[in-house]
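From the pipeline queue, job 12 of 40. The input is one protein chain; the requested action is below.

Action: predict structure.
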Amino acid sequence: MTGKGTPIRQVLGKSKMLLGLLEGLPTMLKGEVAMFKMKPEMHYGEVDCPVSPPSSFPQEDELHFEIEMIDFSKVKVVGDDFGVIKKVVNEGLGWESPREPYEVKARISAKTGNGKVILSHTEEPYCFTFGKSEVPKGLEMGMGTMAQEEKAVIYVTNEYLTESPLMSLIEDLDEVHFEVELVHFTQVRDMLGDGRLIKRRLHDGKGEFPMDCPLHDSLLRVHYKGMLLNEEKKVFYDTRVDNDGQPLEFSSGEGLVPEGFEMCVRLMLPGEIALVTCPPDYAYDKFQRPANVPEGAHIQWEIELLGFEMPKDWTGMDFPSIMGEAEKIRNTGNRLFKEGKFELSKAKYEKVLREFNHVNPQDDEEGKVFADTRNLLNLNLAACYLKLGECKKSIEYCNKVLDINPAHAKALYRRGMAYMTDGDFEEAKNDFEKMMKVDKSSEPDATAALQKLKQKKQEFEKKARKQFKGLFDKKPGEIADVGTQDTEERGTSENQNQRKDDQEDSDGIEEEALLQNAANAPRVGLFSRLWPTGKRLFSALGLQRCTIL
């Protein structure tokens, strides 16, 4: 109790308090009244005492403190300034807590510090959306640490008692005690963070989120109903009607369903039913569109995850079985690459390489098969990174192959493509010329690449001359402009001797596509190559042209 007769709350190990109280309070029982006699070094006379004493306090004398332990309990400090503190009355279920934009149902009552009731929603639960300022800020902060069916008392100081539909502001209140029972919350997830792709759980599934979700590539079984997001909400497909009542089965991570659909299913529990609202670019604008779905349509899916099967565990499998599984996954990656789904393709190749870390060939023959397959996977990844515009990563994966076999023609070709795309013409030329020397059969590919390299280098030099024309011819005080490359100018000449056949090499990636990719890559201006930091600086300032005095 303070001198005013009002109980004060202290949090051991958190609150600023006298050293004597810090050591003495843990020895007290609930309801006990005790007298503490403290020497100066245990109260305000302590060196660097965290509590400032009243000016009239005799800091150098022994002081007697009469303490009544009204109650104690385990609490959670929600706000660093002790503006929000939660005391758990009954533990809840699971570990998940509500967060924006979850829908929450809770029984709430509120009292002042002296016990006066100022609010009661104990009969009918109060429903609100988390993050919409529909309850006082401090109450929402405390509820954000609660589990489902948990009961707690949340102490909120006036700094966190904001205006809300739940209760109006009351003047002269230092603190409000909210008694809360978190009855239920509905998981609502903003999948993209911009409000366009929303997953709303309609029916809880079985298991713990997210440990029991199909986060990894799995075989999934779902029932779903697809609707156009308009006034009529016309159903365009229902597996229970249009698929003879059979669920849809698909393997995740293979681009077999729209991206927004798969993103949400991966965060579902078996038995869960969810309502998904999806924008066109994550629905059917980038996927095979059903005939009765117009272009640019916003979609709503009601999805039920019936169950899923995890991928095969390679532990205990013999070498031929392991390599068979690896080849299946690699072939899936090749299909995704041809469909232009480079991120998904990359994920497949990376998955096999991770599994290869635990594979130990038993003889020379198995070792050769294993090494050859690993080389193909590294080259597949090099092709993916080249398509994604990450030339340095592409070069890195080519080097993994060339470190073992410096005369690997395909690795030289891929690295040359990456160097050319990155504007390193000399390194690209070296790789293409070496490629011809080590493998005569690769001469057509190397010749076409060298021709394209020559063309691209000429275009670069032409634009460099144009960019810097007159830059150093000006008299002192005159201004010359250094422009970025003319984005409207594109090289139109094509290599007439380029091979017309699109034969695939042994890793399943078409070299023709990579050559075209290098030819169409954005050119790097000479000014940017001489001063890369300058390019980033001017771009950050919103300047695409640099004026030099």
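Job complete. The first helix runs from residue 19 to 24.
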